[in-house]
Amino acid sequence: MRDPFLKRLELLLRKEIILLLKFLFSNKKKSFKKPDDLNSPKILFIRQDRIGDVLVSTPIFMPIKKRYPDSILDIVLSKNNYFVLQNENLIRKKWLYQKNLIKLLKMIFAIRKENYDFAVDLSDNVSVTSSILSILAGAKYKVGLEKENSFIYNISVPLLSRKEIHIVERIAQLLLAFGIDPKQENLRLRYFTSADSDLKVEKFLNEFNLSGKFIIGINISAGTDARFWGIDNFVKLINWITSKYEDFCTFVLYKPSDLARARDICKSTSAILSPITESFDLFAAFIKRTKLLVSPDTAAIHLAAAFNIPCVALYVQSNKSLRIWEPYNVDCEVLVTDVDDLSTIEPEEVIKAVDKIINRIINKIIS
Q: Which CATH superfamily is domain 195-366 in?
């Protein structure tokens, strides 16, 4: 667990930097209306944080392209999430933000040469990095959600409740800046796998005679050990699935550092061990071939939502003031613990959730 003192220090420093930015760059122009000269905008999105942050931001791309077919959409990403949009054809250019002064300056100078009409901060919380990038991008308009750093924006839109409203809908509020009503749009998440990854998965499925079968994906990995559900728990779940649904198949997904755990789980069950996924895209391609996903990892859950795959999500929610990032607009069961230990979720709870989802899937097929 992260040191609470370091966390408090980080928050204090962030607050001081934001105050300094406000003193130096406070924007006197404020508007909740879209600019009158909007025609074929050149837009720079800023989303240099994590994988899930990018995925929950993808629903706004299509509505903008649909309203403004000649628009140009570019985005700033980081090494943590650059690969997420590698197959996204609505994005023209992907800028790589790196924590290296020389490389950062080169990127900023190149971005300024593009003469963007808009720099759009996609974050719904205060980010010093996003604030600085928004300022330095040199765009005519800076757009963001109304929050502590909104003094840097020319156009700010209301930030909906972070406790009550799903993150996808909060970010989609940014469409208002472009004269688009998010309530009238399809806000499904977007992710597209490569043909190469699809071919590798198909080869794997054929090898184990899984093509055409009802496959349940069990992803055991997440960002921290606090979000590992436990070997025994996964074993109990998989063995229950095997005993009740004999014709169904399960395979275990994992990050490379969890290979030993995955092997232990498969040794005690009939689950098939997936190969080590050398890329995020291959991991996504495996998820795409499942009929149901069980996962403690939000990125995997968002991929399932993008592919319209039902899922059972296991979450830790230590901060009750923030809504969890549950799967959006897809059939799901969400199990939450309010302590930093996912293993406190009982296997019986997960089994019950999986059974509910499977029955809904079967009933949908029958009807």
A: Glycogen Phosphorylase B; (3.40.50.2000)
User: What is the β-pairing status of strands 311-316 and 292-295?
Assistant: parallel
Residue 235, pLDDT > 80, answer yes
Mean pLDDT of all residues in 34-38: 59
Q: For residue range 160-209, list pLDDT tens digits in order.
A: 999 999 999 999 999 999 999 999 999 999 999 999 999 999 999 999 99
Residues 304, 324: contact at Cβ < 8 Å? no
Is residue 343 within 8 Å of 325, Cβ to Cβ? no
Helix (H, G, I), strand (E, B) or coil at 219: strand
- Check: CB of residue 195 under 8 Å from CB of residue 276: no
Topology match between the domains 24-184 and 195-366: yes
Question: Domain 24-184 classified CATH 3.40.50.300?
Answer: no
Distances (CA, A) of 194 to 17, 51, 77, 143, 229: 41, 17, 20, 32, 30
Q: How far is CA 104 from CA 51, 108, 116, 276, in A?
A: 21, 6, 18, 33
Judge contact between 220 and 258, C-beta under 8 A: yes
Residue 125 or residue 309, greater confidence:
309
Check: CB of residue 64 under 8 Å from CB of residue 180. yes
3-state secondary structure (DSSP) of residue 305: helix
What's the pTM? 0.90
Task: Name the DSSP class of 142.
Answer: E
* Rg, Å, the chain Cα set: 22
